[in-house]
Amino acid sequence: MVDLVIVVPCYNEEEVLPETTRCLSGLLNELESSGKIGSGRILYVDDGSRDRTWELICGFSAAEPLVCGLKLSHNSGHQQALWAGLEWAAAHAAAAVSIDADLQDDARSVVGMVDAWHGGADVVYGVRRERKSDTFFKRHTAQAFYRLMNALGGEVVYNHADFRLMSRRALQALAAYPERNLFLRGMVCALGFPTAKVYYDRKERMAGESKYPLSKMVSFALDGITSFSVRPLRYIAMLGLLFILISVAAIVYGVSMHCRGNTIPGWTSLLVSVWFIGGSILLALGIIGEYVGKIYKEVKRRPRYFVEAEAGMSSFRG
Questions:
Q1: Which secondary structure element, helix H or strand E, spans residue 9, and what is its range?
Q2: Same domain assignment for residues 30 and 161
Q3: For position 213, what pLDDT does the model report?
Q4: What is the mean pLDDT of each run of 10 residues along the chain (318 residues)?
Q5: What letter does residue 207 receive in the DSSP assignment?
Q6: Per the confidence metrics, is the pTM higher than 0.85?
Q7: Distance between CA atoms of residues 124 and 142, nearest Å
Q8: Rg of the chain over CA atoms, in angstroms?
Q9: Are 239 and 176 contained in the same domain?
Q10: 220 & 144 share domain
Q11: Bridge partners of 95?
Q12: What is the number of domains present in the chain?
């Protein structure tokens, strides 16, 4: 059992891993020497990388006792890889910090997280002070996502991603969630344990490319909305009621014009109505399909991941 595990999901991160290992190893040594923790580990979770990521992890674990690693047999996605690391931490550590390998999230903030944990917080959120380093598009779409999630009833922390500390109690509670469609930002908020926030400034990426292009960001946003809110389904019902009222009003108007002898020439209004209502029906079916797809994934109950290999785990056996 160790006091603190830093869980780092990795996918094709060979360019940043040496600096990440140096930075996090120094941080853990500092926490140990100051007496804030008794022992710590860095847990890399290789999410089916296609470069030298796992080779580097094995090398680091052989040279540095602070480093250990899990290699997933297939690319399962960031949330699943993070879950694998947190699940391991729940069995081997008193607390865990999750952080991305690029260290754009300020690793120095972990010191404040540990202090808040010792102060009684089971979950400590790393929250960005501002988003000036983001592009105009990313900044405004991210803000719109947080507002939309809260408007739809999903509880999320504004400007918080997956940089957080969780106590063993919170980790074990999170592990009790059975769903396969993971949106950890919402799941952690739903735990209800004492929380705290540590604010930091996000850095530029050291090297490599972002693993969250626009397509993955949109998919992630859809997962978050459909995993934590049924309000879109309710809005569909309300929209259907609105269309019925509009159609009744149109019928009344058409009958009154016919009685007055004023017929409405042309097909414009009919075509507009058909296209508008047809598009609305397809949109509604798409939203319902998202929910049905999630039910389909859940009822199959497939394993979230498989571990192909381990590195530096010998100290945790026996």
A1: strand 2-10
A2: yes
A3: 57
A4: 94 93 95 94 95 95 93 90 94 95 91 96 92 66 70 76 94 89 84 93 66 58 61 71 69 68 59 66 76 75 86 70
A5: S
A6: no
A7: 21
A8: 25
A9: no
A10: yes
A11: 4, 167
A12: 2
